[in-house]
Structures are given as C-alpha cells and as structure tokens.
C-alpha cells in the first residue's frame, strides 16, 4: 500500500475513533449515557469518514454517470422482508450497481459477534434472493466492511465451544478479530458478498491492522475497480446461480 493510500485509510479509521469518543462524551454531558458503549455509536456519525473513503474510491475508478445515495435514500427491496436501507447504494442510469454496508464493534465481542454475523448473512441472502426474483436489477455488487477495536479481549485466542459435529479448525484458537477476517473472506468466496474488508483499530495510541490481506483494503479497492471499469459494472455470475 502506498503512502497516500495508507494516509487516506488511516484518516478514515482515526475519524471512526474520534467520532465515537465525541458521541459518547456528548451523550454523557447530556445525561443520556447508555449501558456499555452503545452511546458512542447511536449518533450515526462514526462511520461517515469510512463512507467517504469508499465514495472517493468509487470516483477514482473513472466510472461516469453515477449517483450515490446513503442511509434511508439507499433503501433496496427485499425478498424475505419489504425493504432494507443500506449504508451506501451506487446507481448508474437509475439502476443499483453497488450496495455497501458498514459495521463496527468495540467491546462485548463474545456477546455480540455472532449476532452481528447473523444479521449480515441474512441481509446478503435477502438481497440475493430479491435479485433472483427480479426485484433488484441483476448483477448488483454487494460490499461489506467490518471495523473492530483491537483490545486485549478482541485479540486473544478464543476457544470453540463443544458442538454436535466437528468444529471448523480454522476457528480454533482464532481471536475475535481473526474470526471477522475468516467470516469476511468466506462471505466473498461463497458469493454472499462480492467485496469485503476486515480491519482492526488500536484506539490509543492510534494504529490499525488488517488481519488478512485477502480481506484488506487493497483487495477491496482492487475488486471495486474491477466491478466498475469505465462506468460499467462487471457482470459475473453469482456463485449460487
């Protein structure tokens, strides 16, 4: 990764840290402090810089005639439910060609990571089925970004509980951060998502780390450029077709 790219990515991730702190402080000052760290993310601004990072990357592809929508304006139809608002949807000639979802986690990984995983599996499958049923234009590229705070809890090896069957050895001894990388890689390999990025962030002193380059920013950006050459989305068959 060149120096300019490293700086751009680092700026977006540092903004994630700073904005969460600002939101938590504002919540506490206003007497609205909530249980755990939820108050640091309920303001909805902590992922804005990451969204801008992706928007800038989309623009850098040279793709023309694109319209970018976010939040409620980025709502797509579903198959198992009426609709779902994505974080970012890119349109070309009024047709969605890219949908991006951002998730982040800071603390309570053992309690929340499985729930967060269930959410994203369902979201991707819902969109995939909606596309198959003709509710969404074909060949929509789905992208997923997961940011996790790097702490002693999220980076320590974690055991796998007893299961009725054989546990996947890839997860044995993997930290929560490594588990996110495994998940993101498999999301892409199975076609639930077409672009994925997993990254860990140390808040103080600030630094960031990608647990697997296969789901790093450079791979994400490369896949994005391949999906939008000259403004045309790459039409590749879904692995489930």
Question: How would the blueprint of this fold be written?
Answer:
Elements: H1 3-29, H2 48-60, E1 66-70, E2 75-77, E3 83-85, E4 88-92, E5 95-105, H3 109-132, E6 141-149, H4 152-155, H5 176-189, E7 195-202, E8 207-209, H6 217-227
Parallel strand pairs: 5-6, 6-7
Antiparallel strand pairs: 1-4, 2-3, 4-5, 7-8
Description:
With 241 residues, the protein is α/β, with parallel strands linked by helices. The protein has six helices and eight strands; from the N terminus they run ααβββββαβααββα. The chain has a domain at 63-230. The protein has helices at residues 3-29, 48-60, 109-132, 152-155, 176-189, 217-227, and strands at residues 66-70, 75-77, 83-85, 88-92, 95-105, 141-149, 195-202, 207-209. Strands 1-4-5-6-7-8 form a six-stranded mixed β-sheet, sandwiched between helices. Strands 2-3 form a two-stranded antiparallel ribbon. Strand 7 and strand 8 form a beta hairpin. Helix 3 (109-132) packs parallel to helix 5.
Major beta sheet, specifics? 6 strands, mixed
Helix share, percent: 25-40%
Cα-atom radius of gyration? 18 Å
Low-confidence stretches: 35-43, 235-241
Query: Reading side by side through the largest sheet, how are the strands ordered?
Result: 1-4-5-6-7-8
Shape verdict: globular
Tally of individual helices: 6
Instruction: Determine the N-to-C terminus distance.
Output: 34 Å
From the helix content, strand content and strand pairing, which structural class follows? alpha/beta
Instruction: Determine the mean pLDDT.
Output: 87
List SSEs in N-to-C order: HHEEEEEHEHHEEH
Number-wise, the strands total 8
């Amino acid at each position: 990764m060149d120096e300019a790219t490293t700086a751009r990515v680092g700026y977006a991730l540092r903004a994630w840290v700073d904005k969460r702190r600002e939101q938590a402080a504002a919540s506490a000052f206003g007497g609205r402090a909530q249980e755990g760290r939820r108050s640091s993310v309920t303001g909805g601004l902590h992922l804005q810089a990451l969204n801008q990072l992706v928007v800038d990357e989309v623009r850098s592809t040279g793709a023309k005639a694109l319209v970018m929508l976010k939040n409620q304006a980025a709502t797509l139809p579903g198959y198992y439910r009426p609709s779902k608002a994505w974080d970012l949807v890119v349109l070309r000639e009024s047709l969605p060609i890219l949908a991006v979802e951002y998730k982040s986690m800071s603390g309570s990984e053992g309690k929340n990571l499985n729930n967060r995983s269930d959410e994203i599996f369902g979201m991707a499958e819902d969109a995939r089925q909606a596309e198959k049923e003709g509710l969404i234009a074909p060949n929509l590229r789905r992208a997923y970004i997961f940011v996790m705070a790097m702490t002693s809890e999220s980076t320590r090896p974690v055991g796998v509980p007893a299961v009725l069957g054989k546990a996947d050895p890839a997860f044995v001894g993997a930290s929560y951060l490594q588990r996110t990388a495994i998940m993101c890689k498999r999301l892409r390999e199975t076609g639930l998502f077409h672009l994925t990025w997993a990254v860990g962030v140390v808040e103080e002193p600030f630094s960031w780390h990608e647990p697997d380059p296969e789901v790093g920013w450079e791979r994400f950006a490369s896949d994005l450029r391949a999906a939008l050459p000259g403004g045309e989305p790459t039409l590749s068959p879904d692995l489930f077709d």
